[in-house]
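Encode chain A's predicted structure.
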Amino acid sequence: MGTTPELAFGYPSDAFTASVGAPFRMIFFQHSSLAIEVGGKYIYTDPVVAHADYDSLPKADLILISHHHYDHFEIEAVYKLMKQDTLIFCDATTAGILAEHGIDCSTVRPGISIKPLPFLRLETLPAYNYSEGRTNFHPKSREDVGYIIGFGGVRIYIAGDGENTPEMKAAPNIDIALLPVNQPYTMTVDQAIDAVKAIRPRIFYPYHYGQVEDQTDLERLQRELEGICEVRIRGME
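Encoded structure for chain A:
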């Protein structure tokens, strides 16, 4: 897998080669908003207008939405990315919002696998808070999701928002993990370290680590995961 940061469309980007030789790249916008380009197709996650200039980016072949919070989903961003054959997958709450705008969105319950594109396998895991006093942020009953995107022998886990749940820690065969680390809404540094040590990805990208009063200690995160995996910081505050 490649390690040299690049720019794509003016945004930080990492280029990789999958285990079966297929090249792909990840383009990082902000928060959990990013794009994955593989085989000439573009996958976008959690689109929000303030996070990227979607007018200047390629249209989406697939849009994945983890939950309906304003910093993870915006209907205007979806409109900007859509083309006639764009596929959208989302949680049930977001599906209801999209339906009000006449947009179809497929929902998948946690653990169910689907094949939205011929070369791609998509799985979901639940994303939620469990700590006392924090369950209202992302309640388990709402069924927010994270996604595992698989292609070419590579599995990328984008966890949505929540804590280091048993489901997260049991995520199998993850090559690249993107996990939220901000307090009090998602994981603490200790929880993130615990999750990464359980998942054992080759590369870990923290996101959702800024924009709050209690800033995430990224230096400690990197220090305590040394030898466990590579930690890459790409401005995903």
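The mean pLDDT is 90.
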